[in-house]
Amino acid sequence: PTTGSINISFTNKHSSVFQYELISTSGQIVQSGVLGYLNLDANSINIDISTISNGQYILRVYSEQEEFVFNVIKED
C-alpha cells in the first residue's frame, strides 16, 4: 500500500520511452504520463498519486517493446 507515491526501480537500461497509466478497477484511466527513457543513471522514478482517491488500481508501465503491470493500493 502507498499513501501518495509510487517508486519504480529498475536494473536494466532500456532504449525506449516509457509511459504509464493508473487504471481503476472499473477500467477508467485515472492518471497517465510519460516517464521517458529508463536508464541506469536515473535508477528509479517516482509517480505522485496523492491526489487520487483511496482504492485499488492497476499500474501499467509500457513502451513499444515492453509492458509491466503492477497492483497498487492507495490509502491514507
Verbal overview:
- There is one protein chain.
- This protein is mainly β and 76 residues long.
- The chain is built from no helices and 6 strands.
- The chain has strands at 5-9, 17-24, 29-37, 44-48, 55-62, 67-74.
- The strands form 2 sheets. It has a 4-stranded antiparallel beta sheet with strand order 3-2-5-6, with no helix packed on it. Strands 1-4 form a two-stranded antiparallel ribbon.
- Strand 2 (17-24) and strand 3 (29-37) form a beta hairpin.
- The radius of gyration is 12 Å and the shape is globular.
- The model has no long low-confidence stretch (mean pLDDT 88).
Strand order of the largest sheet: 3-2-5-6
Given the C-alpha coordinates, what overall shape results?
Answer: globular
Cα distance, first to last residue?
9 Å
Helix content: under 10%
The secondary structure category is: mainly beta
Mean pLDDT: 88
Number of strands: 6
In terms of per-residue confidence, which ranges show pLDDT below 50 for 5 or more consecutive residues? none
Radius of gyration (CA) equals 12 Å
Number of helices: 0
Main β sheet profile: 4 strands, antiparallel
Taken in chain order, the helices and strands follow as EEEEEE
Strand content: over 45%
